[in-house]
Structures are given as structure tokens and as C-alpha cells.
Specification:
This protein has 29 helices and 2 strands. By secondary structure, the protein is mostly helical. It has 4 domains: 215 residues, no CATH class; 110 residues, no CATH class; 141 residues, Tetracycline Repressor, domain 2, CATH 1.10.357.50; 182 residues, Tetracycline Repressor, domain 2 (Orthogonal Bundle). Strands 1-2 form a two-stranded antiparallel ribbon. Helix 5 runs antiparallel to helix 10, helix 24 packs antiparallel against helix 25 and helix 27 runs antiparallel to helix 28. The radius of gyration is 51 Å and the shape is rod-shaped. The chain starts with a helix and ends with a helix.
Length: 727
């Protein structure tokens, strides 16, 4: 029976059932020194490590096609444990052994591969008789791994590991620690090869060819078998019985597989090189299709295969793909440029990926713990900040484009359209769509981004309105229809935007009112320019016998025809302003007449003023003016002018001051000058009028009459008659 050292150092046959040929140590030593040049050839003849290396090479080739290389930590950990155990064995062995010294160089110089411990030969060579071989050892462990008979390979490795541990405990290798190290290395390398094959299977699972369900089920069983075989590290630190952590290794392989699948989408193309937002959107759409397709495959094929072996797979794949997508999205976010690309990223993350129907199925189990955010909070905040910065510039540019479109319409002298009976300009729709689209898009991402977008739009529109107002009023397109259309546009901004976004656009109220007033003022100025000369013929002797007021009222009626196409609030407001203007200018002409009437002419003038007041009132009533407070002004002055019973003038004066508290002392003097009552009566009436005016001021001034202003805007020049009245 050969010695353990001699048998352990000789070449080993392929099968554990083949006879073992004894060797002489000296010959083995000489062989080690003479076969350096042909070590590679002999390595191929050694069925143990050579077969394993071929299997490991095949596994590496399978893995390299779709993912990064296998984690080298497996081999590093096995080697670390091995050398630690080896030194421990050497410390326990004899200090000097001539046979050990003879066989030692074979390992030290690396000319002999580790023995085929996995074939169950070395133990027989060392002890002469080994334990009964487990069934299925007709093939080597490496061949079983290559054929992906994982459970059978693990059972053989587990059997050999148990036998090797037992032999070590029985101090069989006390005289041959290098033999133990060689056989232990074989076991560890085959364990690592089995782990590498597990990783290769995972990497191939989602590939185009996929992996058979039976292989996946066997993978799950072998992982569980390893956990049961090595539940916890041994107390003596024996590396052979150390847990291999294949479950963690499997999860790492799943993560690498997901990363490889996600990274292959448009691999090598920089996001900035994509054709703007459309290229990025296409890339994300492709990414979404791949993730959806892979996870559906996991749900329908992969997870059931693992579940049959009692091994959960869905959550691991779900988390792996979530992490891979998050990493990919973070890379894209780093290089995203422009408002559109940033929005595409934010929209895809918040609306597409986070959609409940992203996977096209509602029956998928949710993870036990919530998935982390797709993008880290700081990354998300940076994206939103960059997006809003670009958005602010873009919206300002859009408003500039809208102004250019309007200016081109002015140059072309295009008349405004009619929409539901009102003058209409595209300005209203353009601005409302611009604001609504951006706010809606931002609201689809987050409420905070929606509020920020609203503020940006409000600020941009607030700056746009004065620019638009100035450009229009300085253009050659100023006309009643265009002015009315712009008034309608401002009112539509108020009713649609402010009503749709209550509490968000209050800052627009002031510029909207200013623009509306500017357009109304210009509209009234056009009418005033037409009718102002017609007031000059009032209160003249020709006026007493002719109807000189009707041409003025005809122009007012024509002007009011445009107001019928203005939205009701602004149309009524403008019509009342026209009504006030006509009454005010009539009174201004009456209080400063070019000619003074006496006797019968004064009475005739009073009657004529009454008729004119009635004509004005009827005209504006027919047009729909609601300024009924103006109806008493001209008749009161006419009554004072034509009153034959002088004591009743006091009553007419009280009515006038009570109806129009904004009347001043100058106006009362001008009215009394028309009547020529005498110095004492004039002084008495003037004093009484001043008492009434002071009382009205204490009661609230113009507010007592609803805030209406009429006489305050009438300038009365000081004439000789007025001076005489004051004396």
C-alpha cells in the first residue's frame, strides 16, 4: 500500500473507479523538474482541473455575452480561506519530513494542478480504501456543471467536502498538508465554478434564447441546498464548511443582468447627441418597452419556475430593474439639456414609469418594502430647478413670438374675427393655450412644479401686457374694431385665466386693468375727436332754432354699434363713460356759453336744454346705458336758468348739489351768472350753496352719490359776469 504522500502527488485517473498506480517519490520529484516545458500539455491530460477549467471557460464565455465578468471575489475568498487553512495545517504538521520536502516543490513551483479531489480519488490514494461513492459520479463535477446538472454537481461536491473534512479531523493529512491543500483547492474551485454557472444562468435568463424552466428550478434548489448544508460559519473557522452565500450571489447576478439589459438600450449614444427631446423620448420609450417586456417575462416564466422550488424571484428582479433604471435615468439627467429634454425626463419618471399600468398588468405582487425614489431627491430638485429656469426663458420667448404674430396682423391690416358676436383676436387663444399647456404639463409632474410654472406664466404675462399695449397703440392698426378686440382679449384673460387658477394669478389683475383702461381711453379719444367740434354750436342763438344736437347723437349711436361686439362688462362700462362724456361736455358748454341770453331768449334756452336733456337720455337709454344718475344734471341747470319764480331757484340748487356732491363753488357762480338775479340774491344763494357743499363733504363727499364724478372735471373760466355775480 503506497504512502499517502506518494499517492497524493501522482497523476490521477479520470474515474474514481479506475485503479490507482503507485509512484516512487524520487521519480515524482524528477518529473516535476523535467516537465516544466510541457506543463501545459500535461495539464490538459489531467482530467480534474483541466476539465474544470474547460467548464469554467465555457461558463465565462456564456456570461461575457450579456453582462460584466463574474465577481472575482469568489476566487479571492476561496484562496484566502485556503491559504489560511494551509498555514494552519502546516503549523500542526511535523516540522521536518523528508517525504513532504520531496513533494512540496510540486505545489510551490506550480507544476502540478490540484488533485482530482472532486472525483473522489485522492482519498482512496491516501487511505487505500475510501467511503462508498454517491450515485451519479460517472461524470466529473466539472462535466456536470458544464451540462448544468447543478444539483448533482453540488451533491458530489458536498460528499467530497464531507469526506475531506472527516479525513482532516482524523489527522489523515498530518504527514501531507500539501495534499490536503490541493484537494481542498479542487473543492473550492469547483464550488466557485458552480457559482459562476449560477451567474451565467441568471445572465442568460432574459436573453433572446432564455433558459429552460427546469434549469431555473434546479438553480433555486441548489441555492437552498447550499444554505441548508452551510447554515452558518463553523466555529473552528474551517473554510470548507463556510457558507458560500449563493443567494446573495444570485441577487448580485440578477442586478448585473438588469443593469446589462438596461444599459444596452442605445448603448454608446450620449444623451446630448440625441436629436433633441424627440431623440431622448425615443430612447426612454425603448427603455420602457425593454423593462416592461423583461419584467413580464419574469412574471410569466421566470418567477413560476423559481416559485416551484420555493424560491422568490419577482421582488428581486423588480428591485434590480428599478435600480438599473434609476442609474440609467441619473446618467441621462446629468447630460440633459434644454427645457424639452428636461421635461421628457421628468414626465417619463413621474407619469410613464410610475404609472400603475406601466407593466400592462395589475396582478403583480408589490414588494414587501416600498421601492426607493427613481431619482434621488437632490437630483429631482436639480432637474426641476433647471427645467423652470429654461421654462422661464422659453415662455418669455413664446410671448415675444405672439407679439410678432400680432404685429404682422397689424401690418397686413387684418380685421378682427367675430366669435359669438364679439370682436375676437387670436391673441386671447394663443396666450391662454400657452399658459394652460405649460401649467397642465407641470401639474402632471408635481403640484410644486405646477405652482412654480403658474408664477412664471403670470410674471411673463404681466410683462407682456405693457409691451403689447405700447406696440399696438403706436402702430397704424388702431381702430374701433381692433381696440374692441383687445379689450375683449384682456377680459378673457381675466375670466378664463384668473377663474381657472384662482389664488395663483392675482398679480395679473393690475396689468390687465391698466391695459383695458388704456384701450378704452384710446377708444373714447377717437369718439371725442369726432364729436368735440359739434359741442361748439350748442347754447348759441342758432341752437335756439335748429336741431344741432342730432348729428352728435348720430355719431354716438354709430360708435355704440362697435360696443355691441364688446363683452358685456366692458361694453357697459365704456357706454356709460360715453354717456358721462356727452353730459359733461354739454354742461361745460352751457356754463360757458359763447352768447348770453336775456328775457325771452333765456326762457327759450332753458326749454331747449330740457329738450336736449330728454333727447340725450332717450338715446343712451335706447343704447342700454345704466348711468341713470346723469339724467338730472342738465334739467336742473335748465330749471335754474328758466325759473320765473326766483324763490324756487333755491330748491333747484339744493336738488343739483344733492345729486352731484362733486359740484364746486365755481360751478354755482357760473350757473347764477347765467340767471342774473342781482347781487343780494346771488350772495344769499351762494352762501346757502356753500353750506350745502360743506354738509355734503362731511357726509362723505362724492361717495354720497356713489362715487360718481361729473362737475369735478368741468373747467369753468372766470368771466366778467361771474365776477359781477361774486360782488
Amino acid at each position: 500500500m503506497p504512502s499517502p504522500q506518494t499517492a497524493a502527488s501522482g497523476p490521477e485517473p479520470h474515474s474514481p473507479r479506475e485503479p490507482v498506480a503507485p509512484q516512487i517519490p524520487a521519480q515524482g520529484t524528477r518529473r516535476a523538474s523535467s516537465e516544466d516545458a510541457s506543463s501545459a500539455h500535461r495539464e490538459g491530460l489531467r482530467p480534474g482541473l483541466g476539465t474544470f477549467r474547460r467548464a469554467f471557460s465555457k461558463a465565462s464565455q456564456r456570461a461575457s455575452g450579456c453582462a460584466p465578468q463574474e465577481d472575482p471575489g469568489l476566487l479571492r475568498r476561496s484562496s484566502r480561506f485556503l491559504f489560511r487553512s494551509l498555514w494552519h495545517a502546516l503549523d500542526e504538521g511535523p516540522a521536518a519530513d523528508p517525504i513532504q520536502a520531496t513533494t512540496g516543490p510540486r505545489v510551490a513551483h506550480g507544476r502540478e494542478a490540484p488533485s482530482r479531489a472532486t472525483d473522489g480519488v485522492s482519498a482512496q490514494s491516501s487511505t487505500g480504501v475510501g467511503p462508498a461513492e454517491p450515485e451519479g459520479e460517472d461524470k466529473s463535477v466539472a462535466d456536470l456543471i458544464t451540462e448544468r446538472k447543478l444539483l448533482a454537481a453540488f451533491e458530489q461536491l458536498r460528499h467530497l467536502e464531507t469526506r475531506l473534512v472527516a479525513e482532516k479531523a482524523s489527522r489523515t493529512f498530518e504527514q501531507d498538508p500539501t495534499g490536503f491543500a490541493r484537494r481542498a483547492m479542487d473543492v473550492c474551485l469547483h464550488y466557485d465554478g458552480l457559482a459562476a454557472e449560477i451567474g451565467a444562468i441568471v445572465l442568460e435568463t432574459l436573453g433572446p434564447d432564455g433558459v429552460d424552466a427546469a434549469v431555473l428550478a434546479e438553480l433555486a434548489r441548489v441555492v437552498r441546498a447550499e444554505e441548508e448544508a452551510h447554515p452558518e460559519p463553523p466555529a473552528d473557522g474551517d473554510f470548507l464548511r463556510t457558507p458560500r452565500h449563493w443567494r446573495q450571489h444570485w441577487e448580485d447576478a440578477v442586478r448585473r443582468s438588469a443593469q446589462a439589459r438596461v444599459q444596452q438600450v442605445s448603448a454608446g449614444e450620449a444623451p446630448g447627441a440625441a436629436e433633441g427631446a424627440s431623440g431622448l423620448a425615443q430612447l426612454l420609450a425603448e427603455l420602457g418597452r425593454l423593462v416592461r417586456r423583461d419584467l413580464q417575462k419574469v412574471q410569466l416564466e421566470v418567477h413560476p419556475a423559481y416559485a416551484a422550488a420555493g424560491y422568490p424571484a419577482w421582488e428581486a428582479y423588480l428591485r434590480a430593474f428599478h435600480g438599473a433604471v434609476a442609474q440609467r435615468l441619473q446618467e441621462l439627467a446629468h447630460d440633459a439639456r434644454g427645457c424639452e429634454q428636461l421635461y421628457v425626463l421628468l414626465d417619463w419618471a413621474s407619469n410613464v414609469y410610475s404609472s400603475p399600468d406601466f407593466l400592462g398588468s395589475q396582478d403583480l405582487a408589490l414588494p414587501s418594502e416600498p421601492l426607493p425614489p427613481l431619482l434621488a431627491p437632490d437630483v429631482w430638485a436639480r432637474l426641476e430647478s433647471d427645467y423652470t429656469s429654461f421654462l422661464e426663458t422659453k415662455i418669455a420667448s413664446c410671448f415675444g413670438g405672439i407679439l410678432q404674430v400680432e404685429q404682422s396682423r397689424w401690418v397686413a391690416a387684418e380685421a378682427p374675427d367675430m366669435l359669438q358676436g364679439h370682436y375676437h383676436t387670436p391673441l386671447s387663444i394663443d396666450v391662454r393655450m400657452l399658459v394652460a399647456e405649460h401649467v397642465k404639463a407641470a401639474g402632471a409632474i408635481s403640484a410644486e412644479l405646477e405652482a412654480t410654472t403658474l408664477r412664471i406664466c403670470a410674471r411673463a404675462l404681466g410683462l407682456f401686457l405693457p409691451r403689447f399695449e405700447k406696440a399696438f397703440l403706436e402702430s397704424g392698426a388702431v381702430s374701433e374694431p381692433n381696440l374692441c378686440a383687445n379689450i375683449n382679449a384682456c377680459e378673457e384673460f381675466r375670466t378664463h385665466l384668473l377663474a381657472r387658477f384662482p389664488g395663483s394669478l392675482e398679480e395679473l389683475e393690475k396689468p390687465l386693468v391698466a391695459a383695458t383702461c388704456a384701450f378704452q381711453k384710446r377708444l373714447l379719444q377717437g369718439l371725442q375727436g369726432d364729436v368735440q367740434p359739434l359741442f361748439k354750436v350748442l347754447c348759441t342763438k342758432a341752437w335756439l332754432t335748429q336741431d344741432v344736437l342730432q348729428p352728435l347723437l348720430d355719431k354716438v349711436v354709430a360708435f355704440a354699434g362697435h360696443l355691441e361686439h364688446v363683452v358685456p362688462p366692458r361694453a357697459q362700462e365704456t357706454l356709460q363713460e360715453v354717456h358721462r362724456y356727452v353730459v359733461r361736455e354739454y354742461l361745460a358748454q352751457a356754463l360757458s356759453p359763447p352768447e348770453r341770453f336775456r328775457g325771452v331768449e333765456r326762457v327759450s334756452g332753458s326749454q331747449k336744454m330740457g329738450l336736449d336733456a330728454q333727447a340725450i337720455g332717450n338715446t343712451f337709454q335706447g343704447l342700454g346705458s345704466e348711468a341713470t344718475w346723469l339724467s338730472r344734471a342738465i334739467p336742473c341747470v335748465a330749471d335754474i336758468l328758466g325759473e320765473t319764480y326766483k324763490d324756487d331757484i333755491r330748491r333747484h340748487l339744493e336738488t343739483l348739489i344733492g345729486s352731484y356732491p362733486d359740484i364746486r363753488r365755481d360751478h354755482v357762480l357760473a350757473i347764477l351768472a347765467l340767471r342774473r338775479l342781482g347781487r343780494r340774491r346771488n350772495q344769499h344763494l351762494l352762501t346757502h350753496a356753500q353750506d350745502l357743499l360743506r354738509a355734503a363733504a362731511k357726509a362723505g363727499g362724492p361717495g354720497a352719490a356713489g362715487g360718481h364724478v361729473l362737475f369735478e372735471e368741468i373747467e369753468v373760466p372766470t368771466s366778467m359776469d361771474v365776477l359781477i355775480t361774486c360782488l
